Amino acid sequence: MDLEMFVTNRPKDLLRREYDVAAIRSKFQQPYDDITYFGMPGPSMLDVKEWGDYLGFIIAVENKTENLGIMQMTAGSLGLSDRTQILQGDVESILLNWEDDVGEIPGKDSFQVVNLDFEGGFIGFSNILVHDLRIDAIRELFRRQMHQQTSFLLFLTVGFREKRGQEYDLNLHHIREELAELGINAQDTINWYLSHGVKHKLKVYVPHLIEDYGRTFRFSLRAYRCFHYKGTGNVPMMHFIFDLKYSKRIVFPKRLSLKSILNCPLFQVYSDKVEASPVRPPLIVGGVESGFPSSRA
Ligand SMILES: C[S@@+](CC[C@H](N)C(=O)[O-])C[C@H]1O[C@@H](n2cnc3c(N)ncnc32)[C@H](O)[C@@H]1O
After folding, report:
1. Which of 12, 80, 108, 175 meets the CB 3.0–4.6 Å disulfide criterion with 36?
2. pLDDT grade for 291, boundaries at 50, 70 and 90
3. What is the pTM (predicted TM-score) of this model?
4. What structural domains and CATH numbers belong to the chain?
5. What atom of ligand 1 comes closest to residue 16's alpha carbon?
């Protein structure tokens, strides 16, 4: 999306207002003073506005300098100036270097609500360096959250292009092999994914990646949801909500099964409603997945 300023639409509003807020409400109990938001609210700060009752401190990241002043005014008009810090620069580099473009460091050591609301592609993006930076930034986020022993909700929104699906296909082949080693035949389901669009492949790829990184840093993925919608300008978008729980124990946290990742429904968001997509893969039934940690953890 090449718009200078982000423009919302009704599916996005619906997600923000109903589904995201429900996830925040169910994860955290009052008082909400200890809840720190870190993310990209954009100049209108619509997410912060919607979730404000549940947020104690807000770290708002923005990489378009022309948006910074507007953001400052928005925070003021929402009465949030005294508990909002605005950082300027790319969110990836702020997470990796722990300072923004003018040397300001995040005002909190860890976060309870992270909203990585990207406008462009996440993986399979035309610039491979951007892709790598995002992945590195997410790993670094997990590492820091682990050091502060902080469980968190991760909202991740990405646009995508249909034509760049090779990495997702490779991931599907790996999952099939991993399941086969456990005696589970996922051939039909994997074939279904391979022959369907990128949104279905992403629905597997992203949770698999987050689950894997999470486990490496002692987080278990307790629940997640995937939504598909058309963003402004009809750009296909995926929105994920991940509930990540930190575990102090040395043993690896329990694994979300690959089977449940493959079987998880994709939700389709319209202007006024959200429905499970009627286009579904054949469900994998039977088989017992081992509780042993994955060799990559
Ligand atoms: C999708 S909009 C935010 C929408 C908002 N979260 C909401 O719920 O309405 C993303 C904002 O982050 C900025 N942005 C996009 N990519 C960024 C990046 N990599 N680092 C920092 N800011 C970024 C954009 O300029 C835009 O203002």
Report:
1. 108
2. very low
3. 0.92
4. 10-276 (3.40.50.150)
5. 8
